[in-house]
Write a structure and sequence with these properties.
The chain has about 190 residues and is α+β, with helices and mostly antiparallel strands. It has one domain. About 20% of the residues lie in helices and about 35% in strands. The longest helix is centred in the first third of the chain and has 21 residues. The chain is globular.
Length: about 190
């Protein structure tokens, strides 16, 4: 009888652990620039396409320039990718932020690398939590050819929340009609 209880518990834990990924929803928020770096590097701001998990952990997939057709695909990165000590070794950085690498081979990734960190060949972006009706901070890091493996902070970009896009099926969202301020998604982050 005990093995049945153990296997039943393992199965229940497995189902609960799989549920958040099965329930992940793709969402898209736009932000207006408020810091000098954000205004200089993004102009009209950014739009973030992300997967919103059940437990509140959002995973950015793409960064899109709001005013022009430019996008960067993101992939998960580790703090140690930035060099010894990772994020905590770089002054003025949120060491607990989520870190992603810009895929320089996809979309306009190389353009993002050159624009955000001139002289670098790699670009990492750290994100504050992506939450409805909350401002966003993105910090850009690039590899520094003059040092031995330590990344450098290239900019701190602060944005104010603008709104959420309604994601239509099989077409690009229309900014004139696809905005939503969905009452079904109240701000519960407090």
């Amino acid at each position: 009888m005990r093995p049945a209880i153990v296997w039943g518990s393992i199965l229940a834990v497995g189902i609960v652990a799989a549920a958040p990924s099965a329930q992940a929803e793709t969402r898209m928020f736009s932000y207006d620039p408020i810091s000098p770096d954000a205004k200089r590097l993004t102009g009209a701001g950014v739009t973030i396409l992300f997967k919103d998990g059940l437990l509140g952990a959002s995973r950015p997939i793409k960064v899109l320039a709001t005013g022009v057709p430019a996008q960067a695909m993101l992939k998960a990165a580790r703090s140690k990718d930035l060099g010894p000590g990772g994020l905590s070794a770089i002054s003025g950085v949120d060491a607990n932020a989520a870190l992603y690498a810009v895929d320089a081979s996809a979309a306009q990734g190389r353009i993002y690398v050159r624009a955000f960190c001139p002289g670098s060949t790699k670009l990492w972006l750290s994100f504050s939590p992506i939450v409805v009706r909350r401002d966003l901070r993105i910090q850009a890091f690039g590899d520094d050819p003059k040092t031995t493996g330590q990344a450098r902070l290239c900019g701190t970009l602060d944005f104010s929340y603008r709104g959420e896009w309604r994601l239509p099926d099989n077409r690009t969202p229309d900014p004139m009609s696809d905005w939503t301020d969905n009452p079904q998604r109240p701000d519960v982050s407090n």
